[in-house]
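Notes continue from the previous slide.

Worked example: a multi-chain complex. Inputs as given:
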Amino acid sequence: MKDWPTLQHLLAESLADFLGKSLPSVGGSDWWARYVLDCLTPAQARSAQGVAEGDLQAFDLAALLRIADRNWAEVALKLKLRRETRNLVFEMKDVRNRYAHASLRGVDLEDQLRDVDTAMRLMQSVGASSESIGQVKAIHRRLLLEVASGADGDTGESDVDTSTPGSSKQTGPSDVIDVEDPPKKPAETSTSGSATKKRGDSPDEVEVVHGEPTARTGGWMVNPSSPGRDVQEALGARTYVGIDFGTSTTVVSVVRLEDRDRLVSRTLPIRQPEELGGSIVHHLVNTVLAWQDDKLLFGRDAYRMRQELFEGRTVFSSFKMRLGVDVGPTYPETALPKGAHSVSIEDANDAAREFFKVLHAGIKDAVTREGLPADFRFAVSVPASFEANQRRDLLRNMKDAGLPADEICLIDEPNAAFLSFLHESAREHASQDLLLQLRGAGANILVYDFGAGTCDVSILDVKITERGISSRNRSISRFTALGGDDLDRAIAKHALLPVLLGSAPGFDPEQRDVEERLIPRLQPTAERLKLAAMEWLTDRGVNDLSGIRQHGTETFHDHGIPGFKIRGQSLSLPRPALSLAQLADALEPFVGRFDPDQNGLHVFAPVVNAMDKSGLTSDELEAVLFIGGSAASPIVRSAVMRHLPDEVQAIVPTDLRSHVSLGAALHCLGFHAFRMDLIRPITSEAIHVMTRGGHLETVIPAAAEVPTTKPFTTRLRIDRAGQSAVELPICVGTESKLLGLLRIQAPNARGFSVDEEVKIEATINHDKLLEIKASVAGTVVRTGLMNPLANRELTPSETRMLEAKQKFNESLLTSRGKPSKDAVLTYARAALEAEAFDLAAEMFMATERIDPSENHATNICFCFSKSGRAERSTDWARKAYERKPDAVAAYNLSCSVKGSEREALLRDAVRLRPDFAYALLALGRMILDQDAAQGRKLVEKAVRFLEKDLRAHRIDRDHCRTLIDAAKEIDDEDLAGIAQARLDSMLDSSIYDEDNLAVPLVGQRQLGRS
Amino acid sequence: MGWYVPFDKLGQKQLEVLNGITGQLDRPHWVQGFAGTGKTLVVTHLMERVAKLKPNSSICFVTFTHALKDLVSGGLQGAVARRVEIKTHTQYLGERQTYDYVFLDEVQDISPSDLVKIKGLAGNLYVAGDGDQRIYDKGASEQEITAAISPRTWKLLEIFRLTKLLQQVAQAILPRTKLIEGLHSSKDAEVTIRLMQHADSSSEAQWVWKEAKRRARPADPSVILFPTHKSIAAFAGEIAESLGLDKPPARGAKGDYGPFNEFWEEEGVSLMYFGNSHGELSKGETEPMVYLMTFHSSKGLDFRNVFIPGMQDGATIVNQMALEDDPELDRRLLFVAVTRSRENLFISYSGRKAHPLLKGLPSSVVANLAPVKAKRDDDEEEFF
């Protein structure tokens, strides 16, 4: 990279500045010796001789990165930096090594682009000056232009055979398609060629450049009025179907010729069963299944009946969101267990499969009705941030539903939306200003997809040059699981739940009851009230919270929710109501004031995330393309646009819900008929393998183009003799987002030998499915997917809890509602460990219900106390003490009482267990006022017992926290500091065995292609 | 409010008509079109335009029913709403006030002599209406309208509201209907028309009430249409009985439904009579309402869920005398009723045979159904 020296300099300067400010605050007076000099390699230390103390600017980038790496944990803690920043330091070390040791062949352009991106993000996180960041951005932009123009970078890849010449799978070297004429019909428009350059002053006038439309280059996309013969032939032989499988609504479209061979993408009305036996034909198909009178309904009537049926038992919705999350049977209470009926739905995969079965039948029926060819090809859109496991589940379910696996391709939703926008603009001669901009300097377009279950934001960098359209995905926002459903849940929780609970005074539901039963029961009503209120507001042109509050007393009502019972309590909501004031309160976190540090729920948060990743600033955006049913609300759109400069244009398609499926159909034609990608996606986050010591080695970098043309290879080694197995935890983005675990068992009892190489080859196929092959000493394991656990970031303890939930759900299903004691107890303990105290309390109580001889009173008391339910905690403390008056029970009860009773209980506890630190501490603190010396003595005694545990590495998190406080009370700041460090290191314990991890190959860690 | 479509969403043909009339404001115009083509909508936009173009002029919107009057006044906003006076035609004629611009909807139900009087009070007159929807026996025929006001006629051909299935049903009821050959642009779902047979009128009433209530949601009310006030009273009596209530008050003198509506409101039942200046549609914006209306009052309105009960053989749609004067009146009335539906249409009857007018309904679009008692899953949820 020719700009590497500049980049290196800018980064070194910023890092030195940052470390110079931060290290003294964490390192104290001897920071220079302990936090700088001690970190250096012998060679660096030699160079450091003679450097004046405090002069970090004298170090080169390699040394500064090493200093940063060594001290990052403490600096990050002190400055509250995000944990991801540590990965940036790791990545930057790789980057620096790459250029320091670059071969003659250099580094290819895409890697360069990524490297500059990493540098920029690191500089942003260390607070580099805006001037420096501006310079790096300029480098980034220059590289982007080079990539967009199809340059090859410093390196060629011709020596790697990736495809057979002439094979239909082959794609061009870049995603460039030719731009053809605008429709030639108007008499006043020049007919001599093709549009690209603006001529004269009129924006409508375009100068045309010669070019024959050809199918293979996608000319039909932007020139729909005269598709070539090959396009006509393709459409005569097959039907190209686009499916937007949405969380709440699915839409199917087909590409067809209309009005004298104009190429259009049209929605396909699907016949859906009606409750009474008739049918409903509509292009919007609600992604809902309902079981009623021994019939499986899907779509519109299934959705309508949602309010009357039970989610998870007789009605199944939002199952798309649960794909890839293996928590065992998602629907333990299903009315359709295996073997009972002709259909079985036990988990989200079953629901998706059954849904695709009926949808497939509906597509066949519609295509016959419309007289289109019966030979199908499919393109299915998925959220850009759908991970490999989710894509895998989706494809498998479609295959199980009878859709031909070879004839399905996936496309990311924002890309499909953009295709649809482009095609529609070309057809309708709309958005000419933006098209002109695309033809000029190019434009960054943010696609804001706000569906029922997801909010995905992608930034596309699009440019139309004389050579064609180049489009790349600059960034994809995290899978935030923010969707219209969340608004409904918020309304249910704030406006409806309190009234529902008011119908059963004294009933104090468990957290799981609220989250998994009561809120879902209220949600359909909340949604209907929301829709009515939104319609009312739209009619009156109200599109912000203050406007809503002005009409605060206006109240909406819906049908009563029939009475039902939970835990013997009868609940009912005869007249559900939502005032606009309540609506405004419920919407506040989503569309109110936006605070980037606090407000992850806000509709603007995914935009910030996507912008951060892309390295763009908001004034570099040209337009926001809104799609998805929930973006239909002007309130949502204005809450997004409000935070962007006025120049940014909002594009709202005519039908926000059909837009993606229309684009998917276009992609289907391009991909299946011509083996051409109109838009090539990139991965959203890097995929790593975890190595010993918590280091992440990149397996596939972020922003890698998909599909990968050849495997990325990462080499690790074994550094312990006799290691019996190698475990390779694979994660996405950060270590807490674990995708799965690969395990290679040693072939014999001797185990692996030291320095044996572990080779990992990773590819992502066209459908973004991750395939990993790992080999050690001739033993090869491969996986198309790893054990999928979750799609959001989880701590290992949360992961363990999910695993326990999985077992629990299985047990619940197999025993028809009576889970085994062991399953419940495992779940309870996992919940306790994950600090889900309400759930844990509930599960411990359930254990006692299942087997009355069990005694978990102490645990239950503890859990309630931790979740802030003082009254219940006291009840259980008393119960525990009555059942078995041991030291812990005495102590627990003492927490809820006062005065002499409390003192007596604490003394009893200390008598029963003289080394009981908590009791000693509580007693000491209690008597401190009356007898300071005695009180302090007891506190000190407690501290020493806890310290002993700390030194012996058998202290848990709670004791550690207690020790920190107590040590401070007796002014032992050093001990408090040690305890604090230990607590930090305990935040995560792992589900894999640290001893089984591999380590990087020293000095020759490789990142990139083999 | 739901019917109002903003200017930038108007159809191509609607815009052409709007622009055509604007170009010749100094002569009478007549906007024609099948149910669901947006005649009232075009007239409303025209009125907005005139209000802007002629800032100092007086403007009056005249319609036939109170229901339509409410509807239009709900659609107008801001300055235009303050400029335009909205009256029923009897009010307009009674007051005898002159206006610079008069917009007259449902022209086919105005008698020829009234039409001449209205024209006399109007500086400029623009009318909208469709002869097939004439449901008052005094209403003017097409020739009479042309003779009275010599308008330039415009035909709206694109049907935005009715689905193809509903259109076919309407056509089967009134086979000679014109203006139907146009484009079809409804975005609503094509739902099978449900023709339900019930054992007796009591079980029919109960089923209709339950289903109408169940399908209503705030902003989307259900509407039950009746040919006569007598049939409304009988239906309401059945509902009250099934709910264990007293008999609801009868319609008072001069068609007063005030006490009737108060009765249901006091009982907490979301049921309301709407028509002849009684009841309000705005309540349905915020509550899941069920409205009872006569075929006559429902003119010009549309709803997602429409129920037409009592359509058994021998049921009275219009009285015998009126039918002798105008043998197609019952067909046109039923035509108006079925075309009020935007999506779900439930026609029902009790006894053995359906009304002869329903005989020709195409079997491909109608499901003959017997009501099934749906099993509700309302067990206790306790599972361990």
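Summary box: The longest strand of chain B covers residues 341-350. Chain B touches chain A through 36 residues (CB under 8 Å).
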